[in-house]
C-alpha cells in the first residue's frame, strides 16, 4: 500500500472532541511499554475536561494532520520554541504523521526566529525525537492527576535561515 502524505491545517474549536479522543487513544494504546496502566489513565484524563482541553489547544499553535480527510493526529507549539503536544491515533501510527507534524512546527518556529526547539518527551517518544536530532538535556518527574510520570527535556538546534545581504 502506498503511503500518502498527511494534509495539515490549523485547529478549530469544533475539533476539540475529536482531538480529545485521539489524545486518549494514543496514550492508552501507544505508551503501555513505558508507563503503567494507572499512569496512562491519569495522563489520558487530562483531556476529560473538554472545555479546558479546547482552551489549551486554542491558546497554542495547534496543527491537525488528516489522512483521507479524517483527522489522525495533532501537535502544538507553546510560545516561540516549545513543542507541548504531539499525539497520533494508534490506527495511523508509523505512517509519517508525527514526522509531518513535527516538520511543520519546526519550520514555523524557525521562520519566526527560534534558534532551538525544546520538548518534554515521553519515554515512548524518546527515539522518535532522537531520530529527528533532539538531544536529551534533563530528566523530569511530573505529577498528573496524582500519578508521577517521567519525561525528558530534549532540545534541537534549528537550521539557521539563509543569510541575505542588503538592507533590512
Ligand atoms: N519508538 C521508536 N521509534 C519510533 C516510535 C517509537 N515509539 N514512534 C515512531 N518512531 C520512529 C518511526 O519508526 C520512524 O522511523 P523511520 O523514519 O526510521 O521510519 C520515525 O520515528 C517517524 O515515525 P512516524 O511514523 O512519523 O511517527 P508516528 O506518526 O507514529 O508518531 C508518536 C510518533 C507521535 C510518538 C506516536 O507514537 C504517539 O502519538 N505516541 C503516543 C503519544 C506520545 O507519547 N506523544 C508524545 C508525547 S511527548 C509530547 O507530547 C511532546
Helicity range: 25-40%
Order of secondary-structure elements: EHHHEEEHEHEE
- The poorly predicted ranges are none
Quickly give the CATH architecture of the domain at 7-117: 3-Layer(aba) Sandwich
**Structure annotation, total helices:** 5
Question: End-to-end distance, in Å?
Answer: 49 Å
Give the spatial strand order of the biggest sheet.
Answer: 1-2-3-4-5-7-6
- In total, how many beta strands? 7
- Radius of gyration, in Å, reads 16 Å
Biggest sheet character: 7 strands, mixed
At CATH level 3, the topology of the domain at 7-117 is Aminopeptidase
State mean pLDDT (0 to 100 scale): 94
Beta-sheet strand percentage?
A: 25-35%
Describe the structure.
With 168 residues, this protein is an alpha+beta fold. The protein has a domain at 7-117: Aminopeptidase. The chain is built from 5 helices and 7 strands. Acetyl coenzyme *A binds next to helix 1, strand 4, helix 4, strand 5 and helix 5.
Question: Topology, pairings included?
Answer:
Blueprint: E1 7-10, H1 16-30, H2 37-44, H3 50-58, E2 61-67, E3 70-78, E4 82-88, H4 97-111, E5 116-122, H5 126-131, E6 135-144, E7 147-157
Parallel strand pairs: 4-5
Antiparallel strand pairs: 1-2, 2-3, 3-4, 5-7, 6-7
Helix pairs in contact: 1-2
The structure holds acetyl coenzyme *A.
Which structural traits does this protein have?
globular, 5 helices, binds acetyl coenzyme *A, seven-stranded mixed β-sheet, alpha+beta, Aminopeptidase, 7 strands, 33% strand, 168 residues
Concise overview:
This protein has 168 residues and is α+β, with helices and mostly antiparallel strands. The protein has helices spanning 16-30, 37-44, 50-58, 97-111, 126-131, and strands at residues 7-10, 61-67, 70-78, 82-88, 116-122, 135-144, 147-157. α1 packs antiparallel against α2.
Amino acid at each position: 500500500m502506498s503511503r500518502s502524505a498527511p494534509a495539515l491545517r490549523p485547529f478549530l474549536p469544533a475539533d476539540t472532541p475529536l482531538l480529545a479522543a485521539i489524545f486518549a487513544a494514543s496514550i492508552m494504546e501507544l505508551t503501555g511499554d513505558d508507563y503503567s496502566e494507572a499512569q496512562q489513565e491519569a495522563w489520558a484524563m487530562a483531556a476529560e475536561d473538554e472545555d479546558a482541553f479546547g482552551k489549551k489547544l486554542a491558546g497554542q499553535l495547534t496543527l491537525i494532520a488528516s489522512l483521507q480527510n479524517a483527522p489522525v493526529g495533532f501537535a502544538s507549539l507553546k510560545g516561540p520554541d516549545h513543542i507541548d503536544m504531539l499525539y497520533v491515533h494508534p490506527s495511523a501510527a508509523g505512517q509519517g504523521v508525527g514526522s509531518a507534524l513535527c516538520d511543520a512546527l519546526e519550520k514555523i518556529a524557525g521562520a519566526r526566529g527560534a534558534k532551538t526547539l525544546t520538548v518534554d518527551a515521553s519515554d515512548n517518544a524518546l527515539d522518535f525525537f532522537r531520530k529527528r536530532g533532539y538531544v536529551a538535556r534533563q530528566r523530569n518527574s511530573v505529577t498528573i492527576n496524582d500519578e508521577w510520570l517521567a519525561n525528558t527535556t530534549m532540545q534541537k538546534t534549528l537550521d539557521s535561515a539563509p543569510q541575505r545581504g542588503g538592507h533590512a
